[in-house]
Amino acid sequence: MPHTYKCAISDSLCKSSSIIDGKKCLFERRTERIEGRRFRKGNTQGFGEWMDLESVECVSSSDGMDEDEIHANHHHSEFSSTKPRNGTTNNINSVGPTAIAPATSVHELLECPVCTNSMYPPIHQCHNGHTLCSTCKTRVHNRCPTCRQELGDIRCLALEKVAESLELPCKYYTLGCPEIFPYYSKLKHETVCNFRPYSCPYAGSECSVVGDIPFLVAHLRDDHKVDMHTGCTFNHRYVKSNPREVENATWMLTVFHCFGQYFCLHFEAFQLGMAPVYMAFLRFMGDENEARNYSYSLEVGANGRKLIWEGTPRSVRDSHRKVRDSHDGLIIQRNMALFFSGGDRKELKLRVTGRIWKEQQSSDAAVCMPNLCS
């Protein structure tokens, strides 16, 4: 006869919707990822609610058995497996607590199985209860990536509600961040966390590599073959045989090491509206609050004329495009660049010089004094 499982929660009988090996199965919600202490009970709408195993009695009963007989024998069937092994059906009395699934944290239940990122409302689920985030839902063509069933538009409201009560560490805690946040505040913090990895500052190929500064310096040197220099003064020469042809984002990158820090010098040609321009700017390989401790100057000129730019280097937290589009650097119009090149103006020859210094607070005058690199 078919068996049912009774859950002693508020004296209510939990009913299931599927039969496996002649037994009705109570637990139908993501059994492969259920925590050792928490699980979901089935729901005809595809949702579920959390229950503690410590407060649940799962009992096996046959038709015709009364409730007293059920409670007298319930320990024989607790956590029993109904899946056949080696072609035979398991004896219900032979399976003990070792059949409990490995412990899985609630945080892992909130992990999208597709992108592995934490899920935030709206959290979607299929009719079998498998969840995924709203971003990935648009990428899987309305098919559950776990069971391949049609997704529909079912919200996993129970999981969203559970997330509201969680407090979790920042995902960069292994990199040193000590902060703990409510689940729905954590994502916002992680986008600006000072311990988050840096993106590769190489502008030419939208490089996706991330890491700390020493790692990125080695990456720029070994993988992108960027020139490395020591010292806080530089002399950059840019030559172009046909200055009338200015393609968008023609650029160069050089890394300088001084004051124990690394700086990226960018020089590029691009279209600004209808006019081609040349631009040079400096980025600090570190956070913005550290970048404010330094200043730099850029100079270009010839034939008795020169342009000078002074400013604070931008952090590599700001993307290359963001800095360029903000025009935060030395900008040279093409006509002026050709004037600086001299000769017949048929060849561009620009020489950009510059230096970096550290602003040092003077205790006597309470003003910033430049600390020049030797």
How far apart lie the N and C ends? 90 Å
Name the CATH class of the largest domain.
Mainly Beta
CA radius of gyration = 32 Å
Counting structural domains, the number is: 3
Biggest beta sheet summary: 6 strands, mixed
By DSSP (H or I, 4+ residues per run), the number of helices equals 9
Q: Remind me, CATH topology of the largest domain? A: Apoptosis, Tumor Necrosis Factor Receptor Associated Protein 2, Chain A
Q: What global shape is seen?
A: elongated
Whole-number average pLDDT?
73
CATH-derived architecture of the largest domain: Sandwich
Q: How many DSSP E strands?
A: 24
Pathway: Protein modification; protein ubiquitination
Domain SIAH-type: 165-225
Domain RING-type: 112-148
Catalytic activity: S-ubiquitinyl-[E2 ubiquitin-conjugating enzyme]-L-cysteine + [acceptor protein]-L-lysine = [E2 ubiquitin-conjugating enzyme]-L-cysteine + N(6)-ubiquitinyl-[acceptor protein]-L-lysine
